Every structure is written in structure tokens, then in C-alpha cells.
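User: Can you fold this complex?
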Amino acid sequence: MPWAISKDRKRMVVLSVDGVPYTLITRLLACGELPNLAAIVAEGSLVRYNSTLPWVSSVAWATYMTGVNAGKHGIYGFVDRQPDSYKTFIPTARHIRSETLWEYLSRQGKRVVVMNVPVTYPPRPINGILVGCFLSPNLEKATYPPQVAEKLKELGYRIDADPWLARDDKAKLLDELDLTLAKRAEAMFYFMAHEEWDFFQCHIMETDRLHHFLWQEMEEAHPTLAPRFYAFYRELDRVIGRLCSRLDDNTELIVLSDHGFCGIQQEVYVNHWLAQQGWLKFEVETPQSLADISAQAVAYSLDPGRIYIHLRGREPKGTVSPGAEYEALREEIASAALELTEPKSGERLFQAAFKREELYHGPCFDAAADLILQPADGFDPKGAIYKNTLTFKGPVLVGMHTFDDAFLYIRGHQIKGGTWSILDATPTILQLMDLPIPSYMDGQPVAVKQ
Amino acid sequence: MTRDQRPIEHKGFTVWFTGLSGAGKTTLARGVEAILRDRGMKVELLDGDVIRQNLSKGLGFSKEDRDTNIKRIGFVCKLLTRNGVVAIASAISPYREVRDFVRQDIGSFVEIYVKCPLDVLVQRDVKGLYKKALNGEIPNFTGVSDPYEEPLNPEVIVDTSLETPEESIAKIMAKLEELGYVPPAPQQAVYSADEEKTVEERLRALGYI
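Assistant: Here's the predicted assembly.
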């Protein structure tokens, strides 16, 4: 059936683009690089808004898809600790402890198609189609219902570009990013045309990959790679143009990102710093994993900038007492982190430190890190267990996430003035679809309905 | 430390256990209740025997009274369900028509048929009721002197003469997860060892671990 939509019912399309900074697209819009986006920006609102803390895709998109803070949905990063052990695990859709937007819409009788949104593997059943994200080990297991995988294979669909390609040759990664985008767009247009839907979301992951591996080349105007960086954006803009030509006036359109990006000056190994300060000790000289931690350790860190106090009764070898000792240690680490500077340039490495109760509330609160350090732009905090240096800069990973430079675009509606974040996206989607916003959601609708 | 220990936000639904007296409805309902609570969900158990002592006090066992009792339980389940609570009802509920009425009325409804052959129930006779019923001491006793209409299309059938309570509970939980009412248990492994390696390598390449 054609996608020209003749029905009266309100529909919604969300195009999510991972890690696209507001400042980058406004610059590209200003130089005329994105004509299709420029055309729709003229008939809607585009604002800068915030990510989540930490500012990684898994937390940001879990927050987006549930409309609640991490204290309620339970996703705090790409890696987390198993309770009562030093084992870590990869949080997935199965660990999201709240209803997702698409589950809610399914329950309202809406049919949904959702493609590639981070932390949607393993696929949870919905009324419609779900294609899992880059946490899917393979395409066969990535979809709900399972038979959708066959169609995707036929279309040459790819879950993600292989990020290891960047180690060998960044041009090869670009080839793969171009191809992955093309195949993703093809699958998106196929499902738009052949499926019934009230809500359709396609997520573009390629922008995040492009930025991680080519941000510096873009900033430094690399002779061959920078033009390809911009060519990728022009192609994405053409996809937006094709998408818009298929939407009628009854279909709302939102384009949004989850965090910003900037170049990496230095990676910062937080556990090395904790060890230097005497807060982190191991039982062996070159520890392989957290399990090698010593009973004398009082703190450790997971990516990015999440600090855990080695607490008695929570960690098996933890000795820090809850209460005054715990509080004093958090204060001490937070103040020291805010004083910490890059050895050569003297620049501060962290701009803010948050106690978990300042950021999260809800039934998953206890799983949160005790302290969350927000880095200064350019200094990327890493969770490596053991490194013999505080900072490092390599040639491969050259871009890092930022907190306050994501964007939200809504076609045909103004956006209220204020400071918004990705937490407000789902209440806004429900507002535009004329659906009740569940009272437990933590964000608020930000559109001024026309 | 914890500021908010409220249960997780989730959608409400009703799990309705139907079956003969002594088949194991209450045991299974309590087992499911415990698991759902453990997963942070808000749950209310409505046990037929308990309801008859308060909400339906005075009602007898005629078809009309039985239907009234079930409609009352169904009404409470509806209120709970629409307020985001999991309502678990455990009642013989012998008549198909009123069960289907309750299903329609509630919407998010999962029917569990707790099946057990009569001869096994008579042999078990935990409450000593079958003996009395067979002796004619209890009139209108379902399965003996009153009909039981089996569900035609329940979401789950458990046979407690063949399955252990743990097996039946696991079957019910699997269905609730499959239907999307309950998020699967987090401790259940998402990846095989090889799959986990694949995904970890991808995250490592991106600098996330």
C-alpha cells in the first residue's frame, strides 16, 4: 500500500540521529549544506537541549523511550555491575524497568514501527515491528516479530558499521557508514510503505560513529576525510528530504539527537587517578578486572566518570561504612576531581560532580553510581581498570560526547522557552499524538500546539 | 540512602486463575504474586475464599450468586488494572459466560486454567470438601454437583496433576513476559558467551568499555 496517507488519524514520525550536536547542524544549515533540513526548519522549531548524565547513548535513549529518569528505568551506562559481585554486564532492553513509548502506544491500540533505537535488544513484543540496535549480536535475533529479519536480510540491511575498520583505515569506515546509512534508509522507506503504522521511528547510528572516528579530521579540514564527513551529512539531508516528501499534514515529524560531540584533547583514565590518590588499590600489580580490587580500596570507576564507593555490605570486599564515612569520601573525591588538571596545559578535567541523589530518583536508585563526574569538553573520562597513565590521546577515537549540545526539532509547532532535555521528548510525542501523558513520566511536553 | 522505594511504574493487567476447588489456584496465584512483587511490580491478590468473607459476604452458590461474586471480583480487578496494578484473581469461576464478560470488561486480561482431573482432586482432598460433597453434605459443589465450564481459549493451561507448582509458575511467567505484561527477569542471560564477546568487542572499539 502507498505511504501517501489519506487517513485522518494523527500519526507521528521520529527520525533520531545519534550524537548530532545542535551547534554542528546550525553551522551546516548556515552554510547551506542541509537544504532539506533547512526547508523543514523554516516550518517548525529547532532548539538546543540537554542529554542525560552520564551523556551516553544507552542512558539517553533509555530515558527517551521511557520518559523517566535512570533511577526509574535502571540504565546507567553501556556497562554496569552485577549486585554483590565485581562482575559487570551489558545492560540491554531486558534491564529497562519501565514501560517503553512503543509499549505504551501498543497498549493504546496504536501500531508502531521502531528501528535501531539504542537499547532495544533483545526486542520486547509490541503491536508492530521492532528492529533492535547495535547491541544485537546478529540480525536473526534482532527483530520482533522474528520473521522481519528475513526481509531485512533481503534488503541488505546492516545493524551497525564495523567500528574496528577505523583502526585500519578511516576511509574504509566511511565507505561502510555510507552503505549502512543507505541500507537503513532503504529499510525505513520499505516499512513505511508496506506496514500500517501510527508511530514510526528510525534511528541513525552512523552519525555517532562518524563523530567518534572523524571529528578531528573534520575540524582540522583533512584533505580527503573532511569532505567525506560533509558528504555524509549531505546524504543524510537527502534522506530527510525523501522522508518529508512522503509525509502528509496529518503526520507529525520530530527530528532529534541525544547528545552533542566535541573533539578529544585527552582520554582521562579515572581509575588511574583514583589509584594515584590512594583511593583505589588492587591485590595484584597489573589487574585484569574489578575482581582484582583490594579490600583497602575505597573507590573505583566505570565508564564514563561514574565513581562507586567501595561500600561495606554492597561490594564483597568493601570496607567504607555507609553514613558519615561514605559522605565524607564522596565530598573528598568530588572536590579533588574538580581541582584535577591536565598535567601539561593545566586545564581542568572536570566541570561538575554530582551526587547520585541530585540526578536520580526511583526504584532503581540503588544501582546508580555514587558520584557522577561531568568532564570538561575535550577530556573524555574512561573506565579502564588499569592504565599506567592519567591521560592519553590516540589517532583512532577522536570525538567524545557532550551533555548540553543535543537538538530537538518539531515540524509545525513552536517549542516553549526553557531548558529542556531528552527526558521531555516522549511527553512531547504523546502531547502531539493527543494521548494522555502518564503521571509517572519525569519530563514534560514542550510543544506549543498549533 | 534510597529516596524512593516505590514499585516500578508499569501497566496494569489482570491474571485470572480459574479451576476446580483444590486444583492449586491459590498456590499458583501466590507464587506468581511473589515473583511480580520481587520484580518491583504493584500487585493485589483477590482470593475467592477471602472475597466471600467480605465483599461477597452473604452470597451463596446458585448460578446467580456465583455470577454476582465473579462480577464483583472482576469489577475490583478492573479498577486495579486501570490504575497500573497487577490484579490476581483466584476463584473457581465455573461459568464461561461471566468469565468472558469480565475479560471484555477489563481488557488486559490473562486467563489461567488450573486443570486437574476430578479423581486426583478427590484423592488429594486437602480441605476435606470433596468427601463431604460426594456424601451429599455440600450442595452445589463445582465438579461434583455443579457444572464447571472449561475455558475455550485461556492464555495458559496448567495441569497440576502433571506439573510441579514451580513448573506451572514458570509457564505462567513465560506467558506474561511473552505478552509483554512483565519485563523478563534481568538475571536471565541475554547473550550466549560468543554473542557477549561480539557485542563487547563492538563496545570496546567505540571506547565504551
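The beta strands of chain B are 13-18, 43-47, 86-90, 109-115, 156-159. The mean pLDDT of chain B is 89.
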